[in-house]
Amino acid sequence: MQNSSNQTAKNKGIYLLPNLFTTAGLFSGFYAVIASMNGHFELAAIAIFIAMICDGLDGRVARLTNTQSDFGAEYDSMADMVSFGMAPAILVYNWALQDLGKIGWLAAFIYCACAALRLARFNTQVGVADKRFFQGLASPAAAALIAGSIWSGSKYEIDPTDISYIAAFITALAGLLMVSNFRYHSFKEVDWRGKVNFIVMLLLVGIFVVISVEPAIILCLSFYVYALSGPFITIKTIKKLKVEHVLGDTVVNSEQDDQPKDNVKKDETNDIVPTSTKDKAD
After folding, report:
1. Contact 160, 93 (CB under 8 A)
2. Are 83 and 141 in contact (CB under 8 A)?
3. In sequence order, which ranges of the chain are alpha helices (DSSP H)?
4. CA dist 129 → 100, 126, 205, 250 (Å)
5. Which run of H or of E encompasses 133?
6. Membrane-crossing residues (predicted)?
């Protein structure tokens, strides 16, 4: 009984190290907003990528140091909403959408609202959904999609007024992908503490070299490919695409698609039905 109360008190504590990374990510997201308001779009986009790095570190540091807490989880969600919800929406609006009037701010709002819905859905599905996959595009990846596009456009001096409608479409689409049911690899099955072959280390060095040549273009293209991978994975792993595979509140669990074929059989309408259910229907 005493151990249970001690554990409860521990979970309610505030640990410095993981929350330090969360605060750094929050600061980067806030800086991105300020920089975009001052017309420093390239710096704002880079700040969002820095927030991504901090967001990836805080959770892993908490698990490695056994400093997880309820406060840290809630604080991380609030910081993510600023860094990957508000910041990208304001950044893209200031860069290319403000001249579109209502269409511009509505596209930015769609992205922002979808980011909030994505984070809320993720928090309610912890421990339920398949950890190997994200249900919908993760908010950091969606933010990287927007930030990478603006970083590339600013670096190569593309006139945002020439592509304002394209920017509005990509912004709204990134938001809708966040609340979709498309499955995206989470890469959580990777054992970061495990041993690897020497060739793997050489490949990692090569990846860093390639990114350093043209970081804006390489990162932008990488996240575009990742954004497109969700629909591809979903369509590839199911036999018949339905509405719930694209949109809805159904919890995505890939194990349902991997059931042995002898546990199911088809009815006369060619729909897959569990054997026990079909027998009862007969």
Report:
1. no
2. no
3. 2-11, 16-37, 41-64, 70-81, 87-92, 102-124, 139-155, 164-178, 198-213, 215-237, 243-246, 275-281
4. 39, 7, 33, 10
5. strand 133-135
6. 12-34, 103-120, 132-151, 163-184, 196-226
User: For residue 271, which of 247, 250, 245, 242 has the smallest C-alpha distance?
Assistant: 242
Which DSSP category does 261 fall into?
Answer: G
Q: Which tokens belong to 194?
A: 């495990």
Q: What's the pTM? A: 0.80
**3-state SS, one letter per residue, for 58-114:** HHHHHHHCCCCCHHHHHHHHHHHHHHHHHHHHHHHHHHHHHHHCHHHHHHHHHHHHH
Write out pLDDT tens, residues 101-151: 999 999 999 999 999 999 998 888 766 566 777 888 999 999 999 999 999
